[in-house]
Design brief:
- There is one protein chain.
- With about 180 residues, this protein is α+β, with helices and mostly antiparallel strands.
- It has two domains: about 60 residues, no CATH class; about 70 residues.
- Strands 1-2-3-6-5-4 form a six-stranded antiparallel beta barrel.
- Strand 4 and strand 5 form a beta hairpin.
- Helix 1 runs parallel beside helix 3 and helix 2 packs antiparallel against helix 3.
- The longest helix has 17 residues.
- About 10% of the residues have low confidence.
Length: about 180
């Protein structure tokens, strides 16, 4: 029953755009398209959500990608429609290919911190809170196994930026631990 409601919702979201006749080369305001995409993202059922995206983006006037194989991303093009030379890898999974511009920190932001620990507090078995020499407090985001040797007062740790805004702490050639800054 829920899948039926979601499919009906996805079909219903297309009506506002379908009711408005769009000229062949019309441009829809980006804010409207973004709002529609947010509405589609609220649908839990993957099939209904995809149908919502497909129906609404097509109705908004997005042109299908040219010269692509199903499941493959279109190659970047210049203003004339010609492929851009020397562009990044394209195709399925290309978003996971490491590119310098994707992983470099913005100007003025550091990628890595090496600091001395001034205090360690065990919050629960396998979860620790560390205070560094600059006063920053970092807490383990996940439990570590009993074999993990946590840093002690005076130890030096390295904290690196990781995917999706997370951080990994390395200590004494052990496995990295996901941490978050709490103060």
């Amino acid at each position: 029953m829920q899948a039926y409601r979601l499919a009906a919702l996805a079909a219903g979201l297309t009506l506002p755009l379908a009711a408005v006749p769009l000229p062949a080369q019309a441009q829809v305001d980006d804010a409207i398209v973004l709002d529609i995409m947010r509405q589609c993202a609220r649908i839990d059922d993957a099939t209904a959500r995809l149908a919502c995206y497909d129906n609404n983006v097509r109705a908004a006037g997005a042109a299908p990608a040219r010269n692509t194989v199903p499941g493959q991303m279109a190659a970047p093009q210049d203003g004339s429609g010609a492929p851009v030379r020397g562009s990044a890898v394209t195709g399925f999974g290309s978003e996971d290919v490491r590119r310098p511009e994707r992983f470099n920190a913005p100007p003025g932001q550091i990628d890595e911190l090496t600091a001395r620990v001034t205090a360690v507090r065990m919050l629960q078995p396998g979860v620790y809170r560390l205070t560094l020499e600059d006063g920053a407090q970092w807490q383990f985001s996940e439990n570590v196994p009993n074999s993990y040797r946590p840093p002690r007062e005076g130890s030096v740790v390295t904290i690196d930026r990781a995917a999706l805004g997370s951080f990994l702490m390395a200590f004494d050639n052990q496995m990295s631990v996901r941490v978050r800054r709490i103060r």
